[in-house]
Amino acid sequence: MESKVFYAKSSEEAVEQLLKSTKADKDSIKITVLEKPSKGFLGIGAKSGVFSLEYEVAKETEPAKEEILVEDEVLKTDPSGQDKVENKEIQDKVNITDEDEIRIAREFVVELLKNADVEAEVDVVLEDNLIKVKISGDDASCLIGRRGDTLDAIQFLTGLALNKFNKDSHTRVFVDIENYRSKREESLKRYCYKAAREVAKTRRTKKLDFMNPYERRIIHSALQNDRFVITYSEGTDPYRRVVIEYKR
Fold first, then answer.
1. d(CA 109, CA 132)
2. DSSP assignment of 28-71, as one string?
3. DSSP-derived secondary structure letter, 185
4. Strand partners for 5
5. Distant-in-sequence, close-in-space partners of 235: CB < 8 Å, separation ≥ 6
6. Distance CA 115, CA 128 (A)
7. What is the pLDDT of residue 75?
8. Whole-angstrom Cα distance, residue 149 to residue 190?
9. How far lies 31's CA from each of 18, 21, 34, 135, 164, in Å?
10. Residue 70, number of CB atoms within 10 A of its CB
């Protein structure tokens, strides 16, 4: 008996790899699972299992002259063992469309809501290389989280799912729940305008709360043309914040 170790998503896939790489007798194969495969969460973080396969080498038989159809190719074999390919190899190129990416984003979010036992409507549109996912419903607000932390996680995971489907994708993902993003943006602007007036009056530097990159950009953009203050960021994510300083 001989043995080989394979990394595969299932024992069937491991057997398939063995048969492709060796002349193993299929009926003699014995499988030992060294490490079980993991499906991950909605396909994200999936890991292959480790399989040890013991097998006997199949006995060789005298080749007979025959024609074997393999997809769109005709292989001619003769006793001398010389194979000839008569037709050119045809390579199938998969063209991933915008509709495919929209479908993947929608299916991922719908499946996530289903696993979270949340009933909500999901609307997905594509605008200038930006897939906008809008989630609405009475139960949807529970997925926003503290200062949008859970919402940001959903957006990040949806982007990962899209990138896994199409590694060459240049499309970004924007997820919003019950118009939280626009409400949060208005709240941040009021917050930074008030802080800027305080800095202009006291001439004392003010450090704002920790924020994610999206929220920091809102602050910087809102105060970029202010006559009395300047802004910059300090710290390391997730403990990075905007600093408002009096313009000397």
1. 12
2. G-EEEEEE--B-TBTTBT-B-EEEEEEE-BPPP-----EEEEET
3. H
4. 52
5. 210, 241
6. 30
7. 39
8. 20
9. 11, 16, 9, 46, 30
10. 9
Provide the CA 94 distance to its chain's centre, in angstroms. Answer: 19
Q: pLDDT tens for residues 103-116?
A: 889 999 999 888 88
Put simply, whether the predicted model's pTM sits higher than 0.90 gets the answer no
222 pLDDT higher than 90: yes
Tell how many helices (H) and how many strands (E) occur in the chain: 5, 12
Domain boundaries, the chain: 2-85, 98-178, 182-246
Q: 104 φ, ψ to 5°?
A: -65, -45
54 pLDDT band (50/70/90 cuts)?
Answer: confident
CATH fold of the domain at 98-178: GMP Synthetase; Chain A, domain 3 (3.30.300)
Residues 121/135, Cβ–Cβ less than 8 Å: yes
Sign of the dihedral through C-alpha 17, 20, 21, 22: positive
Three-state SS for 181?
Answer: helix
In this predicted model, what pLDDT tens digit does every residue of 27-40 receive, in sequence order? 888 888 887 877 65
What is the residue whose two structure tokens read 């199949």?
58
Query: Please, what CATH class does the domain formed by 182-246 belong to?
Result: alpha beta
Residues 6+ apart with CB under 8 A from 46: 9, 37, 38, 39, 40
